[in-house]
Design a protein that fits this description.
Elements lengths: L1 E2 L10 E5 L3 H12 L3 E5 L2 H10 L1 E5 L5 E3 L2 E3 L8 E4 L6 H4 L11 E4 L6 H9 L7 E4 L2 E5 L2 E4 L5 E5 L3 H13 L3 E5 L2 H22 L3 H7 L1 H17 L6 H10 L7 H7 L6 H15 L4 H11 L9
Length: 309
Amino acid sequence: MDTAPDTAPATPWTIAVLGPGGVGGLLAALLSRAGHRVICLAGEDTARTLARDGIRVSSGQHGDFTARVEADTELREPVDLCLVTVKHTALDAALDRVPPRYARGLVLPLLNGVEHVAALRGRYGAEQVVPAVIRVESTRTAAGVVEHGSPFTEIDAAGADEARLAPLAAVLNAAGVKTRTVADENAALWAKLAFLAPFALLTTRYGLSIGGVRDEHPEELAALVEETTAVSRACGGPGDAAQVLARYGAFPAQSKSSMLRDAEAGRALELDAIGGAVLRAAERHGIEVPLATRLVTELADGTGSAPSS
């Protein structure tokens, strides 16, 4: 794994951001501040607000600042890079905002799950789509207002052709997003999903932060990690359950999954993209995942406790 040098191309890029929410808004603001032309794609009201006011970021890592961006409801010109940062539940409708004829550069999806990559390649072409994962906690509190809570903003971009990905990594690194390139996309995508799925399913099912899950449901946490890492290994990803549990142990006790935050806000859950993807992969490989199956079923049926904080 290599981290690109902290140098961006001499010529600024034109970058579209589909879904300028917590993650997309943060990246749009950072890239604009770094000198790139950024076009945010969203609904009419959000686009109008962003075009007028820009994006205001509050971040311990990156500082507090406001970045100017362009905004529209649809991409109307070719771009060098399109970041896809919508929730999986909104992906199909959102893609109408990015006609394939304008996505001629790289398409970088930063979504939860693993199955969206094939769909995006079918729409934009295998060469354009670069599978990637992001590690960040960032929340949109209002249109154009982003609170970045984690002390890190990290991306792994996957592809065998490292030279092809180097300019992309350089652009992101120079904007303050620690980016490395990895050769194996399955390893990158499943490393995140095997970690994310237990966090998302258990915190949402019980309406608890990770600290609450650690304290009140430690056996289920350990068992679910064993299930998801077994599926990850079968799919070509990492499978060290102890390492995943150690990462949970290092999390601040108040940390919540994005799925729990969606539940608290009454938004649609990315249950199928996260839990459903694990179940489908487990079935393909003949792996028993009884706890994951139970939790996905209960959440789909509306079982759980996610009180507003």
